[in-house]
Fold each of these.
Amino acid sequence: QVQLVESGGGLVQPGGSLRLSCVASGPNLDYYSLGWFRQAPGKEREGIACISTAGGVANYADSVKGRFTISRDNALNTVYLQMNSLKPEDTGVYFCAAAYILSVQAMCASTSLDAWGDGTLVTVSA
């Protein structure tokens, strides 16, 4: 069973940057796509960035394209989300997720995935 632990959230001013990390543990991690989902206050959880097993393919929500970058280091079993040019509307709880042998497009479009972290809060405010 895959377990995920996020870190790196916090308070940042508009225009600032943050990097989130998620450490995965469990069997067969090389077969899992990994992703970041966001749940803003009063809204449903949405997929914002997903990355393939080897890290060669990524999918982004339109709202974060050009500002966020997802990457993974399989040697460290870690997935990252570099967030630049942050906006107040980026505020929310960010969840790491894992999906067994699923395309990044399908993963980011779904919330029925194999594993979830507990989330880390990102607040963008002056």
Amino acid sequence: QVQLVESGGGLVQAGGSLTLSCAASGRSGRTFSSYAMGWFRQAPGKEREFVAAISLSAGRTNYADSVKGRFTISINNAKNTVYLQLNSLKPEDTAVYYCAARLLATAQTPAGYPYWGQGTQVTVSS
């Protein structure tokens, strides 16, 4: 099992920045680097959508087109923590942001991730 805890959400004005953190823990018998980590978001009345993902072993990243150039996913293996830096925020970025984990390669669909955090709210005011 893997436990994920997000933090760092909040209220910010359009054009501002936030950094989200996702701390992983558990007794899966596998090292942190065995996993791929993803960030998803879900706005009210909408489906959960892919934001970004990173393969912890290879360091490969991918992003949704809507956030490319504005958001950056990164890792700190020593702390078993994944970060999502949100810059140039827009009101349409308002959502609950979720961290997710799966073994090995990244995926861009929620169904591909068996482990999820509880989510952290990001609200961008215009």
Amino acid sequence: QVQLVESGGGLVQAGGSLRLSCAASGRTSSNYVMAWVRQTPGKEREFVAAISRSGSRTSYADSVKGRFTISRDYDKATVYLQMNSLIPDDTAVYYCAAGYMGFNSNYVPSTYHDMTYWGKGTLVTVSS
């Protein structure tokens, strides 16, 4: 089992920045691909970003590419999502997720469907 706890959400004006954190505990989080997924009421979950076990490869949704950056700190067992140039369409609950993706430590998915563990989410609200 891996427990994931998100933090860092809040209210920000359009054009502003936020950094989300996801603290992992339980099984060694370095064994897992980590991802951020978001959801707004009435809509399906949307893949935002993912990072490989090695940390050397990342993937992003087209809607956030160039604005968001995912990273991970192995010593702190924490994954981050730096969000810049925020727009109202970024408003959502952001979830951290973890999944085991096999022996290739450089593999990074572009979807969230293989994620096994999920946090409870943190709300990001971007005002216009």
